[in-house]
Write a structure and sequence with these properties.
The chain is of the alpha/beta class and 148 residues long. 40% of the residues lie in helices and 10% in strands. Strand 1, helix 4 and strand 2 form a beta-alpha-beta unit. The longest helix is centred in the C-terminal third of the chain and has 16 residues.
């Protein structure tokens, strides 16, 4: 991996990841230090609220011998640039930031130019960017989960 693209979780501490994820530091610490919470016997997949939190989860899972995606799939949210540069590139949900900004600017420009302020509900379609952290569980693990 290119050192210029080191994962965010390695550069940021628990405090920073907690702030970005809008969760407590204890939540981040527990996720990183207790991978049994997302062990293959308990989960098929984990979805993290933001990519940096997924980076930490991935590190913890791999450190404890959990195979991603064979044992557990992992998905992040935001598709930040570092997501593609992890040891196991992260599947992530990408929001259409450009389209969201353009729409907001158009609505604001219209309101500032004397037009009638628009009241509308806008829904933007996210995109699932599939990489290497997702896949079907291995047959042995799927059978084990059904029997427990």
């Amino acid at each position: 991996m290119d050192p210029n693209h080191a994962p965010f979780a390695k550069r940021a501490g628990i405090k920073d990841v907690a702030r970005l994820a809008k969760v407590s530091q204890a939540t981040v610490s527990n996720t990183l230090n207790h991978p049994e919470l997302v062990s293959p016997a308990r989960r098929e997949a984990v979805e993290a609220a933001i990519d940096p939190l997924a980076f930490g989860v991935l590190q913890a899972l791999l450190r404890h011998g959990v195979r991603v995606p064979d044992d557990v799939s992992l998905v992040g949210y935001d598709d930040i640039p570092d997501a593609r540069h992890l040891s196991v590139p992260l599947t992530s949900v990408r929001r259409p930031h450009h389209k969201m900004g353009t729409t907001a600017a158009e609505m604001l420009t219209n309101a500032l130019s004397g037009g009638v302020p628009e009241r509308r509900h806008v829904v933007f379609q996210p995109e699932l960017v599939v990489r290497e952290t997702t896949g079907a569980p291995t047959r042995a693990n799927a059978t084990e989960r059904k029997s427990t």
